[in-house]
Write a structure and sequence with these properties.
Elements: H1 7-10, E1 14-18, H2 23-34, E2 38-43, H3 52-55, E3 63-66, H4 72-82, E4 86-89, H5 96-101, H6 103-124, E5 129-133, H7 159-177, H8 184-187, E6 190-196, E7 198-200, H9 210-220, E8 224-226, E9 232-237, H10 239-253, E10 262-265, E11 272-274, H11 275-286, E12 292-294, H12 311-317, H13 325-340, H14 345-358, H15 367-380, H16 388-395
Parallel strand pairs: 1-2, 1-4, 2-3, 4-5, 5-6, 6-10, 7-9, 8-12
Antiparallel strand pairs: 9-11
Length: 396
């Protein structure tokens, strides 16, 4: 059955979001308030100016705590005071290039921040579900043309990516040591992690990120500067993984301890596009006359190709993508033009959330495609081959 977000489940539900002032955290806060949840946010001040958090007046919808995830005592006190049913852990240093400039901050926030929220929940008790949001970059990147599955090894070339791999290992260790499914009756906590692709959407003003950089240039009528034009990423609208997080949390809270695992939430394979492809689409969708240039200077190392295999989420959660990459980019342009025209930012976001919830599953997604994904997943587990011919050999 197709997975959809259950509005009745969230009405009156106590939810704690760490990192609620960030781009994804602000969108998640808006969606949960639209669903009727009671929200507490724990975060530093918004990381950018402007920010979606301030533009959409998210602070008026959330009981906000301005504090650092690395402050364990403060965090534990708030978990104890707020008594959340669900915790979404999004607080992080989220930029690859910044992690090169400040690796200590990156590791302290992403590694010890994860330890702190899990330890606070362990010591306080009462939380039913925790979702630690990490990244598709947590995997040991081998520049494969196929998507990474949840069972692939953790890795990370740069400080950011490796910190997210560490956060996944910490999550697994806490699940095995303190929140083991076999002891669920005793501890009552279902702990999962979620790995998403390159999210895009209106209101993202992050530094050194492709779409925000493009939006800034378009708003100023500047020429776009592009680095790594051939790099491939799994682009998806921010509402795609957020819907996955919400559906996963519902399953975890409903006693679904079998869902206390790692999950990928990414686009279909053909929505993994090059950087230059995305830039061209943004330029043509903006006014048709905008141009760009490719920056040839040396860049810090980033993976050239990155995809996620989301067969597990599709089959076990019923989660399905709804907006393809072209739709996602169009929504970014629509949001930005409405913002430029002075329209109510929160209203723009609510409108797009409602449009997303009413949208059918991805028009190109059908049971045959899901079946093919599952067959690909099985083939990838075969040690001596990475093609369907290997499956045929075993079958014979």
């Amino acid at each position: 059955m197709e997975g959809v977000v259950n509005q009745g489940f969230w009405k009156g539900r106590r939810v704690l979001i760490t990192g609620h002032t960030g781009f994804k955290g602000a969108w998640l806060s808006l969606w949960l308030r639209l669903l009727g949840a009671q929200l507490t946010g724990y975060s530093l001040k918004p990381p950018t100016r402007p920010s979606l958090y301030e533009l959409a007046a998210v602070g008026g919808l959330v009981h906000g705590i301005n504090a650092d995830i690395r402050d364990f005592d403060s965090l534990k006190n708030e978990v104890e005071r707020q008594k959340p049913d669900v915790v979404f852990h999004l607080a992080a240093q989220a930029l690859v290039r910044r992690s090169y400039r400040d690796p200590v901050e990156t590791y302290s926030a992403n590694v010890m921040g994860t330890v702190n929220i899990l330890e606070a929940v362990r010591q306080v008790g009462g939380v039913k579900a925790i979702i630690n949001v990490t990244s598709d970059k947590c995997y040991e990147n081998r520049e494969w043309v196929w998507g990474y599955r949840e069972t692939e090894p953790m890795g990370g070339f740069d400080p950011y990516s490796s910190s997210k791999g560490c956060a996944e290992l910490i999550t697994a260790a806490y699940r095995n040591s303190f929140f083991h499914p076999k002891d669920y009756v005793r501890h009552g906590v279902a702990l999962a992690s979620a790995r998403a692709g390159n999210v895009i959407g209106g209101g993202d003003w992050g530094e050194d990120r492709l779409v925000p950089d493009c939006v800034r240039a378009l708003l100023k009528c500047d020429r776009l500067v592009v680095r790594s034009p051939t790099s491939i990423r799994p682009w998806q609208h921010v509402l795609e993984p957020l819907s996955g997080y919400l559906i996963l949390a519902e399953r975890l809270c409903d006693g679904g301890i079998e869902f206390a695992q790692a999950w990928n939430f990414g686009p279909l394979d053909h929505d993994a596009k090059t950087v230059e492809w995305v830039v061209k689409k943004l330029c043509s969708g903006w006014d048709g006359s905008s141009g760009y240039e490719i920056k040839s200077a040396p860049q810090p190392h980033e993976a050239r190709s990155l995809k996620l295999d989301c067969s597990k989420a599709m089959t076990e959660l019923g989660w399905l993508p709804r907006w393809d990459v072209e739709t996602a980019l169009r929504k970014v342009i629509d949001w930005t033009k409405a913002y430029r025209a002075g329209k109510n930012t929160r209203g723009i976001c609510y409108k797009q959330i409602e449009e997303y919830m009413m949208a059918p599953a991805h028009r190109d997604l059908d049971l045959k495609r899901v079946g093919d994904n599952l067959e690909d997943t099985l083939v990838k587990s075969i040690p001596f081959g990475r093609g369907r011919h290997a499956l045929q050999v075993i079958a014979s």
